[in-house]
Design brief:
By secondary structure, the protein is an all-alpha fold. The chain is built from four helices and no strands.
């Protein structure tokens, strides 16, 4: 099939690989995340693997989390040599 003109410029692919999770599974995952406070991305990864028997990379789990309109910020460790009252000292300045 050889299309000419504007029709020939339209992409002829289906839009990429289908998701391993079904729409209903995504809704169920959304409800679980909503009910679980402070769930980490690694916990979501483990949950998807165990509950839905689907193995995604952490990067793909991050994309799914964004798609579900959640935001996970990167956790940074506290500096071990900081004084115990470091937050109070910062407030005073």
């Amino acid at each position: 099939m050889n299309l000419i003109g504007l029709e020939g410029l339209k992409p002829s692919f289906g839009g990429g690989r289908p998701s391993k999770l079904t729409y209903d599974q995504l809704i169920e995952l959304d409800k679980i995340i909503e009910k679980t406070p402070n769930i980490s991305m690694k916990d979501v990864h483990k949950l998807v693997n165990e509950k839905f028997n689907v193995d995604y990379s952490l990067k793909q789990i991050g994309k799914i989390i964004k798609k579900l309109e959640y935001n996970y910020s990167k956790a940074y460790p506290k500096f071990s040599k900081s004084p115990k009252d470091a937050e109070e000292q910062l407030k005073k300045t």
